[in-house]
Amino acid sequence: MNFFNLVDSTVYHYCSLETFYRIISSRRLRLTNIKHFRDTKEQVLIFDFLSSYIKGKKGREYAILRKFIKEIKTGFELPPTFAFCCSMNPKSLSQWRAYAADGKGVAIGINPYFIRGAIQKNEYSSILLSLGLGPYKVLYSDSDADELAEKIVEITREIIKNTGIETELALKDTFTKKEFIRVLPSMISIIFVIYWSALFKHSDFQMEDEARIIYTPRFSENYKDEIITRLVNGPIKYDFMRNEIISYHEINIEESTESTKEAPFINELWLGPTCKANEEDIKVFLESYNMLGPMSKIKRFDTPYF
After folding, report:
1. What is the pLDDT of residues 150-162, one digit of tens each?
2. Is-contact 296 263, C-beta < 8 A?
3. Can you tell me the distance from the alpha carbon of 156 to that of 62, in angstroms, rounded to the nearest whole number?
4. d(CA 228, CA 246)
């Protein structure tokens, strides 16, 4: 398993034709706060599995992780995480039905290298987490849980061995908020756990074969007693959807002609089995926004569909 399962191949965002139009015409990808996602176990499931894995095991690495999990479960609020959801598979009937207007929409085949290049050239890149935004492959509970838990334990063990982490402070039965804030930023493994929490889902969702572009605000030692968030491209924005006020962050995907030729935003675009859009019209539309490269393709998902 790679460190964060960074994806190097095309990832596909299923959406309606209207959403596709808005993404291209605005030149923005919207990363939504995952606490608004419909999966109630988002950012929670990993702590259940990790807690079970380290239960009864001895060693400072296990003790520190148990302490962190206890703090999470007793009210410490994780920094918000924003995600843009994709799939590794452009031919999933269930996703055409669920996310692409029942087959009338599209699957945008996004070039992962464009995303990395666009972020690196963003004016806010100096505050970007070194972990980057991905895209990353989502891991699932049945197949990946034990391997992921052991990876977290290994990282924690190495940090204890090689850094000046305040281990004794971290192992106290109780400590103040100030003490907790002192320990947490130095615990690189904990930051990784928070990252992984947005990339770990129940195996019931495995058919989605999901990949995510994510942004998790980093920890800062420049503010008293506070874990703060900074966004890559300006302030958090808000929208009203499904009877909720939704927070989100936008990534600017506008690039120059030269860089688009090198790594276009769209590697390929799949039109849904019942999409009425004309392929030539879509091609001209995308070219007008400089979103295609010389090798980009527009395809139709030609399959019996009911």
Report:
1. 888 887 777 666 6
2. no
3. 8
4. 19
pLDDT in tens, 7-31: 889 999 999 999 999 999 999 899 9
Stretch 79-106: mean pLDDT: 93
Which of 22, 116, 120, 109 has the alpha carbon at shortest distance from 293? 109
Q: Which letter does DSSP use for residue 110 in this model?
A: E
* Residues 6 or more apart in contact with residue 87 via CB below 8 angstroms: 11, 12, 13, 14, 95, 107, 208, 209, 210, 211
Q: Which residues contact 125 (CB under 8 A, 6 or more apart)?
A: 119, 232
- Beta-carbon neighbour count of residue 135 at 10 Å? 28
Please say whether the beta carbons of 217 and 77 come within 8 A: no
Question: Which tokens hold the place of 143?
Answer: 């197949």
Q: Are 232 and 119 in contact (CB under 8 A)?
A: yes
Q: Angle formed by the axes of helices 141-162 and 188-197, to 10°?
A: 160
Instruction: Give the Cβ contact number of residue 98 at 10 Å.
Output: 12
Nearest residue to 141 (alpha-carbon basis) of 290, 21, 293, 39 = 39
pLDDT tens digits, 188-210: 566 677 778 888 898 889 899 99
Q: Give the strand pairing for 139-140 and 237-241.
A: unpaired
Contact 107, 270 (CB under 8 A): yes
Angstrom distance (rounded) from CA 265 to CA 227: 33
pTM of the model: 0.81
- Which residues are within 8 A (CB) of 273 and not within 5 positions of it... i.e. 6 or more apart? 96, 103, 300, 301, 302, 303, 304, 305
Distance between CA 48 and CA 41 in Å, rounded?
Answer: 10
